[in-house]
Amino acid sequence: MPINPKVAQDVWKDIGQSVQFTVLKFKDLPQSDLHDAIVDFADRSQAIIRSLRIRDGQNDGSPSTLKVAIGFSNHAWELLFPKSAKPKELETFTGMKGPKYGMPATEGDIFFHIRANNQAIVVEAQTQFMKFLKDFTEVVDSTQGFRYFEGRAIIGFIDGTEAPAPEDSADYALIGDEDAAFENGSYAFAQKWRHNMDFWNKMKTEHQEKAVGREKFSDLELEDDEKYENAHNVASKYEPNGVEQKIIRMNVPYSDPATGNTGTYFMGYARHWEVTKGMLQNMVDKSDFLLTFSELLSGQLFFIPSRDTLAQIADGDFD
User: What is the pTM of this model?
Assistant: First the structure.
């Protein structure tokens, strides 16, 4: 069967205006209790999404902009479904180290990526999800992101220029027949960066451009000899056997200007975790310039089941 985006969760389009990222971990409860709670939630979550899309209907008749992806870490999958098969590339991210910088791994069992143009719908979705999960989970991280001017990153550059075009995105984001049991699922890597914006803003624009590898205003890519050797679009490129591989990036900024807590929530969806993993390893191996003024606060891999797989979980087909 070919990839079918219609049965996938929302992993390949629409970054949204208002965004919520939430990572939960399970409380120390009996495995059977956690399993039963997730079986129930797999069904309830889809009903919540359908209801909120009706409530979010626009006055002009246009459809709701609510998009949701719900995922499970390797730890969660093995805890919840110890007798069942799991996605072939699902593993626990344990961090990465390079000559100067590293990427930490953090805990987490359940992941939410919720976005819409109306923040009220985003808040209501997370509120209703937590109604059914709060007795079984603890919050590891909750981050509210937003769309910055012109879709730019908080550092002022257009984000995602080198990502696949929307019409091509599904093939890069969704698992195919190479893992037929989990087809139309996706591997999501979530990573929270905090930036030293004072450091960045004191850099002259020409140096910022060399650090990113693109012109700031026009977004045109610089020639290779005009970039720093560790420019971001050099360090993050993954080309096994000379063939560039791509993922779907849905990065958004977050910021509390009063406290200076500002950064980027990196959100990468991929058909193959090995592609994202290769990009991350290149970034630390080549000391990506963005790492020079950033602190990485989190990092974990999650599997985003298709809606068909969520229905199977709800039916008790995984144990």
Answer: 0.96
